[in-house]
Write a structure and sequence with these properties.
The complex is a heterodimer of chains A (593) and B (277). Chain A is of the alpha+beta class and 593 residues long. Chain A is 42% helix and 17% strand. Helices cover 34% and strands 11% of the residues of chain B. In chain B, strands 7-6-4-8-9 form a five-stranded parallel sheet, with helices on both faces. In chain B, strands 1-2-3 form a three-stranded parallel sheet, covered by helices on one side. In chain B, strand 2, helix 2 and strand 3 form a beta-alpha-beta unit. The chains are: A alpha+beta (593), B alpha/beta (277). The interface between A and B is medium-sized, with 28 and 22 residues.
């Protein structure tokens, strides 16, 4: 229930929205390990900081940890009340409620606006253009202050694959639609820099944020001109998009669109959001990548050094574990393998029906697993050597993320079964083209892939692969494994986890194709039955005819026998027979003589 | 599934390859391409069971079929490559001599019309002795045609019956053909055909020349008589570039698509219970 009385600890500025909550509006507060790292790296210790917009508690905690004092202004009274309660015991934190144009005071040493400038004006306030909002905000900044500001890209990847038209939005937050009506709103990283320059600020660093403005898991430095190799960037962005885009309905699978965006060199132009860091003394981090949920979350930094890509852990737990699953973020520090994942390579081969290519990849991969096994068992991290986590670089196969580990005994056969099962589930639920007969279900397809890898598999091993995948996925997501088993065993019967419209269209096309094949098989079988029945009828008729003929022959034979018997009794037969016998005797005598 | 799977003992070869009952192969859940084909893998009179997989020899066949609306193709290569995998050529094989010649042949529903005399004259002019002429069982049974080649001084043979409706199936048809091909230095014909491709992979020098003859009442959807030569000029001429011809034969017979026995068992729907002990 939203309360209307003034919450304790909240300073009122004017323009408070009494019944409105940004946190409960459907669009989440901005959050994520990369944002936390950005704050930690760029804010000067002990500075006086202003925060505007809707930020999640971990980001605010990072600000509070660096700042000497924090003033956080929100337009929502309920949200301000909740945060005032959260930070009531933290000295130096002021929670204020009101509209942007009511903020006075300053100058602030740093301003954090990582939520952008779209959730800073209240329904009470004047309708400032984006440029005016920025000008008001930067007017509160000290001359050598630091500004962290984000800006959503209206042509970002999340818009390209999203199902809803922003201009058609009808929910409560659209009392003043910000999309497409403000010509001062930056439409590119360059125009964002221009607007900041108008305010007397120069951009020390900029980032392209993926996969969504609210929950960026990857911050790519520069205007999308990432230092890291394109394949590495594509793999990182694909992985970041794997769980969808914050649950919004989609028309396409963002993973493969993201890969195409990188390949086309448009990482910056099509980023869901841009983040600009301004300040003379700022030493911004390189590429920041966050992954994992809740207690498993880790943030790393990637940098290119010459021909090599290196990764460091910036934040995360020491070692976290649950049952047999554990994660040691320290394993992420080191050189990153550069190349395409096995999943990407297999998908490409499947679309081209390149069966020799699929065989070669699977045999190479299975051989690599076997070589790393000791007495048939694989070590903890290699239990996670699945198709989406192994990369083919110049030296061969390598784990992309070696931080996960499984302490239970795992055979290389089980790992292969789990890996191929994951791949097959993605192939079937995505409705992607592949060369195998449509009547092969998930299990038969897994068996066929095992055969192509020259590692024929038993049904027991197939089942162990299913249970291992369910156990691991369940522990990572915090759900019981039993809830996931059915979807893993028979993915064609379970809805796609991504629920992208285009994926549904593809899956529908596949179902139509399966039905077509089933109908054709039924029609051919029916016509075959008719043919065989006709042949049987013909054979039956022929048999009857033959039997009739045989009967006639037998009757005729009997008749002839009777006639012969009768003839033998006649005088003429006896006389002729006696003449014949006498003739034979005469001839014998003549021969002897 | 379809009796054409038994043509030339193809099903038996796969059964042998997979360790199944080689005398009575299990039913294949699909249709095998039974001869080299420059359209969609099957004849136009062939009542192919749609909805079941079509196991074809090459990627080009799959693309052609797909382009005309047929689906469910799976490229496994020709049964010939599986036979060669089971019977690699031995180092102490006997010396190859002469040419084995395969005149273009008809089948039960279409005869071939052409000048056999002119063809024989060209063979005599081109080939060194000995020359073996291998006739399809229909022509071999025809006294008039067989005696033409015999009286020209050629050794005339036939590899046996193709088999129809599961009758008169020669389980060892391709084995006999392999033995003959490995005994000869060259393989030739007046049209590009399975035999020429088989012979090329079996180590013969191929050649396609002479009057291609006409298929009486043939289906115009197969194109004209010279279509195959335009498609694969590597084989055409009295003397050819043997490495180029071999590469073309490997592509047409799908050598790189050779599948393992377990994979074939999965695709054909052959259970493990049908294996030979």
């Amino acid at each position: 229930m939203i309360e209307t009385c003034v919450p304790p600890g909240v300073t009122l500025l004017g323009g408070e929205m009494l019944q409105w909550s940004d946190r409960e509006s459907g669009r989440p507060p901005v959050d994520g390990g990369p944002l936390v790292e950005l704050v930690r790296t760029t804010l000067v210790q002990g500075s006086r900081v202003l925060v505007v917009g809707v930020h999640a508690v971990p980001v605010l905690e990072a600000v509070v940890a660096r700042a000497g004092s924090v003033t956080h202004v929100l337009r929502s009274m309920p949200d301000a009340g909740a945060l005032a309660d959260r930070f009531s015991d933290v000295p130096g934190v002021t929670i204020a409620c009101g509209s942007l144009e009511r903020i006075a005071g300053g100058p602030f040493d740093a301003i954090v606006a990582l939520d952008g400038l779209d959730r800073v004006l209240s329904a009470d306030g004047v309708t400032l253009s984006w440029r005016d909002r920025l000008r008001h905000l930067t007017g509160l900044l000290a001359d050598d202050g630091v500004l962290l500001v984000a800006q959503e890209n209206e042509l970002g990847l999340h818009r390209l694959v999203g199902m809803t038209e922003p201009e058609a939005a009808r929910d409560d937050s659209e009392w003043w639609p910000a999309h497409g009506v403000d010509p001062t709103r930056p439409a590119s990283p360059a125009s964002l820099g221009d607007e900041l320059a108008r305010c007397g600020l120069s951009v020390a660093a900029s980032y392209a944020a993926y996969p969504t403005p609210e929950l960026p898991a990857v911050l790519v430095p520069g205007e999308g001109g990432a230092e890291v190799p394109g394949e590495t960037l594509a793999t990182v962005l694909t992985s970041a998009c794997a769980a969808g885009l914050g649950g919004q309905p989609l028309v396409a699978d963002p993973r493969w669109v993201a890969r195409t965006v990188v390949r086309g060199g448009s990482t910056g132009q099509l980023a869901p959001a841009w983040i600009a860091v301004c300040g003379p003394a700022v030493a911004p981090p390189g590429m920041l990548v966050g992954d994992g949920q809740a207690g498993w979350a880790v943030t790393c930094e990637l940098r290119q050094e010459g021909q090599e890509t290196w990764r460091w852990v910036r934040s995360g737990p020491a070692v976290v574990s649950a049952d047999d699953l554990s994660r040691d973020p320290a394993m992420l520090t080191g050189q990153l393998p550069v190349g395409r994942t096995l999943e990407e390579l297999l998908r490409s081969a499947c679309v081209r029906a390149d069966l020799p290519g699929v065989r070669e990849l699977l045999r190479s991969y299975a051989g690599w697993l076997g070589k790393n096994a000791t007495d048939g068992e694989l070590g903890g991290a290699l239990a996670f050597a699945t198709a989406d986590n192994v990369v083919l670089d110049e030296a061969g196969w390598a784990l992309a993320d070696p931080s996960w580990s499984w302490s239970g005994p795992v055979s290389s056969e089980e790992v292969l079964a789990r890996s191929l099962r994951r791949f097959v589930v993605g192939l079937i639920t995505g409705g992607q083209m592949h060369p195998w007969p449509s009547f092969l279900g998930a299990t038969r397809l897994c068996e066929t892939l095992h055969a192509m890898a020259d590692h024929p598999v038993s049904p027991e091993a197939i089942e162990r692969g299913v249970t291992l995948e369910a156990e691991i996925a369940g522990l990572m997501a915090g759900v019981p494994a039993s809830e996931l088993v059915a979807a893993i065993r028979e993915p064609q019967l379970a809805p796609s986890a991504l629920s992208a419209h285009r994926t549904l269209v593809s899956a529908h096309a596949k179902v139509c194709d399966d039905l077509r094949a089933a109908r054709e098989r039924a029609e051919w079988s029916e016509s075959a039955v008719v043919r065989w029945r006709n042949a049987a009828d013909t054979a039956k008729r022929e048999k009857k005819k033959t039997l009739r003929t045989l009967t006639k022959v037998q009757c005729e034979r009997k008749r002839l026998k009777r006639a012969l018997a009768k003839a033998r009794g006649t005088w003429g037969y006896r006389f002729g027979r006696s003449i014949k016998i006498k003739k034979k005797r005469i001839l014998r005598l003549l021969k002897r003589s | 599934m379809h009796h054409s799977n038994y043509f030339y003992g193809h099903a038996h070869i796969f059964a042998r390859y997979c360790g199944m009952n080689r005398r009575r192969p299990p039913m294949i859940l699909g249709s095998l391409q039974h001869g080299w084909n420059h359209v969609h893998g099957f004849g136009f009179m062939h009542d192919v069971p749609q909805g079941h997989p079509k196991f074809v020899w090459s990627e080009a066949v799959r693309r052609r079929g797909w382009a005309q609306g047929w689906r469910d193709y799976y490229v496994i290569g020709a049964p010939w490559i599986y036979l060669l995998a089971m019977r690699p050529e031995l180092d102490h094989a006997p010396e190859r001599k002469g040419t084995i010649w395969y005149p273009f042949h008809g089948w039960e529903h279409n005869e071939v019309a052409g000048d056999h005399h002119r063809l024989i004259a060209e063979i005599k002019e081109t080939e060194e002795e000995p020359v073996t002429v291998c006739l399809y069982w229909l022509e071999y049974r025809d006294e008039a045609i067989r005696s033409l080649y015999e009286s020209a001084g050629f050794r005339v043979i036939s590899h046996g019956y193709r088999g129809t409706n599961y009758r008169q199936v020669s389980r060892r048809f391709l084995d006999r053909q392999l033995r003959e091909l490995r005994a000869h230095r060259r393989v030739a014909s007046n049209r590009i055909s399975s035999a020429v491709l088989y012979g090329t992979l079996a180590g013969c020098e191929p050649a396609v020349y002479g009057d291609p003859m006409v298929f009486v009442g043939g289906d115009p959807r197969f194109g004209d008589a010279d279509r195959t030569q335009r498609l694969r000029p590597e084989f055409c001429g009295h003397q050819v570039d043997v490495p180029a011809a071999r590469a073309a034969a490997e592509e047409e017979l799908g050598s790189r698509f050779l599948a393992s026995p377990e994979e074939i068992r999965q695709l054909f729907g052959w259970s493990k219970g049908g294996r030979r002990k």
